[in-house]
Amino acid sequence: MSNPLRGLVRNPALPAAALVRLAGDDRISRWDLTARRAWTDEAFDTLAAHPDPEVREALAQSPGATGEQRARLAGDLSIRVLQAVLEGPPTRWAGPLPGRVHRRLAEHPEPLVRDLLTYLPGTPRDVVALLARDRHPGIADAARALLDRKPYQPASLGRDQAVLFASGGSDWNRERAATDPALPAEWITTLAADPSPRVRLAVSTRPELTEAQRAAIDYPVLPADATPALDWVLAAGPAELDRCVRSAHPVLRRSAACHPDLPADLLAALTADPDPAVRALLCSHQAHVPGELVLDTYLATGDEDLLRHPAFSGTGLARLADDPSPEARALVALDPAAPPELIDRLSRDPSTAVRRAMATDPRLPQPRLLELLDDPPTAEAAAANPALPARVITRLLADAGIR
Fold it and tell me: What is the pLDDT of residue 103?
């Protein structure tokens, strides 16, 4: 059911006083509050002062807020809000918090807040070192454990336990043994022909195998989300990482795409990888991929987080106006050079999704915008349009009983 209020709360033209009232309205969800693509400082600061901590918590995790804006909530009195600030938005491409936020919270009088810094990602090492001297023993111990964490070392069951698992009847145990660094060579050969496909797959990803040895194993190729990145590949040095990128094994290449320090030449090699999962993982983990690859991956996967990717650009998207895919046509609204006439034409597209995308565009002629506002499938999107006249915003608020 269409709810213009959900569009209004995302409208940059909404007066600050109305934004405060809408934020506390039962008809507005937490998602509605965080769905803005960008926040003006005035709107962000208005909600940052909202009396409801759930509103401030949602604001702290808004993907459209910058790191500097979210940092303004670091003095909040609610621990849940502070946790939301440290956790950040549920997107890989959110702007980072300034380092001063972590240093400030490392001196917070509440131990629970300082403890958050020891287990939430993103805490700078110098702040962890400060927490290692914390007066609270549990916090200090956790911080020291972070500082003492060694580079990747594969966990092992030990030779005897690995053999016991490898020789047992449990597929899960054999799969666990198949990756154990202490497993004897003869058992690696045995498990390479195991009746369980997952066991054979696990064996095939061992770091010491040659390409010929991997190719000799009849392993299955699973979907990307069913094959987590291999820890040893994520920790690989330059030579080993190069070997993984050039490997015929898709799991090695998928894991390499997630490497935190993937050099430019290997990134370029993976950009042309024939496996769609490799290219999708590359776009999800690497900031410097080509923009066209991000666009192609978005159109193939529908992953809206890619629209926030730093390499994604709206420039030139008007060329998609006649694309057979509605998802592609909807992107035209993100092109800053798209002419108003094109936005108007696409606002009459057979696809509701395309019409909704155009309904939010301020280049839309006002008469057409008002038509879309009166049409239930597009009313919510039209209510978010910053070109919506003030008198219409006032009417929508009054109709909803908000003065």
Answer: 94
Would you place residue 57 in the very low, low, confident or very high pLDDT band (cuts 50, 70, 90)? very high
Q: Directed axis angle between helix 352-359 and helix 376-383, to 10°? A: 30
Query: What angle, 0 to 180 degrees and rounded to 10, lies between the N-to-C axes of helices 366-373 and 376-383?
Result: 120
Indicate the residue type of 110: E
Residues 6+ apart with CB under 8 A from 129: 143, 147
Calculate the dihedral angle through the C-alpha atoms of 267, 271, 273, 276, rounding to the nearest 10 degrees: 120
With residues binned 3-state (H G I as helix, E B as strand, rest as coil), the percentages for the chain, rounded to 5, are 60, 0, 40
Token readout for 279 is 């290219």
Alpha carbon of 225 to those of 233, 245, 358: distances in Å? 17, 19, 33
How many Å apart are CA 49 and CA 53, to the nearest integer?
9
Q: Which residue has the tokens 């009417």?
A: 395
Question: Which long-range CB contacts under 8 A does 181-188 form with residues at least 24 apart?
Answer: 181/154, 181/156, 182/156, 182/157, 182/158, 183/159, 184/159, 187/162, 187/163
